[in-house]
Amino acid sequence: MTVPQDFIGVDIAKGWIDVFSLTTSKHERIATTKQALARFARRANGALVILEASGGYERPVTEALARAGTDYARVNPRQAREFARATGCLAKTDRVDAAILARMGRALELSPTPPTDPAVARLAELVARRTALVGQIRAEKNRAGTTRDPWLSKEIAMLIKVLTEHLHAVEARIEAQIEEDQALATQSVRLCSVPGIGPAVSAVLIARLPELGQLDHRKITSLTGLAPHATDSGLSRGKRHIWGGRPDVRRALYLAAFVASRFDPAMKAFRESLAAKGKPTKVILTACARKLLTILNAMARNNQNFRKNVT
Q1: Residues 4-57: tens digit of each pLDDT
Q2: Tell me: the pLDDT tens digits for 132-160?
Q3: How far, in Å, CA of 102 to CA of 119, rounded?
């Protein structure tokens, strides 16, 4: 007789995790110490652990699970909340969330998340740091444009200089991280062969879209939030809208598509054809980003650099 697989929901906080086993219906709170997480990971072996992406707080848990050889599925927090509402659960506590995650794993028959390459994880941290610094510099430059106090202007300029130095240091570390790993270096060369993609965009795609080349074009566009979703009802046919996905990857693709649609002949012709049909600028840019992503996905799948006829 085959024993049904257990699904274990894990809600993650800074100092502890709440655990719920679907088989035993038992709740447990575990401290996020290395020893306690290791014991939990060993005990959960054979089950599928479902947890949310929690801004990095999930990393000690996933690392412990990986060391123990225990499968886990990392899900989008919004997806988990919508699943909870769909099942009629409006309450939100750590214990409730853990139970919801376990039920979600069974109901949706979730697949295990592939283990993260340590080099890619390190690159993702560096890319996140670069994004934060770019945002801080932009905010300070905006303040510099509105202040009229000479002392504040000087103070802001000094801070911008310091932040810019840190940004350059992080960018240098990103470049070194890619060069030191053969697989990352090969991916970077491949991505940068595409018009519109430079080192910064390439680093974002490598770090934040490891599924590139592993999914079909529909799934990869949905994953990045570039897939158009219908809003039809009865005889009404609403406009298609994009939503969800990974905003940092989408922003990088928008930037690359904007550049490519100006300088790459094929992408420029595609943009102009949409403009001739009266499509709004935002719709055109989204379509260009989606087309670019399809090309990148085919390149990664076939281990090929950019060619004009890649589709």
Answers
A1: 589 999 999 888 999 999 999 999 999 999 999 999 999 999 999 999 987 778
A2: 999 999 999 999 999 999 999 999 999 99
A3: 30
Alpha carbons 47 and 58: distance in angstroms, whole number = 18
Asked if 51 and 75 count as a contact pair (C-beta separation under 8 A), the reply is yes
Contacts of 304 (CB under 8 A, 6+ apart): 190, 298, 310
Question: Domain segments of the chain: what residues?
Answer: 7-107, 118-180, 208-302
Q: What is the largest CA-CA distance in the chain?
A: 79
Measured between alpha carbons, how far is 41 from 226 in angstroms, rounded to an integer?
36
User: What pTM did the predictor assign?
Assistant: 0.78
Q: Are 234 and 228 within 8 A, CB to CB? A: no
Domain 7-107 has CATH 3.40.50.300: no
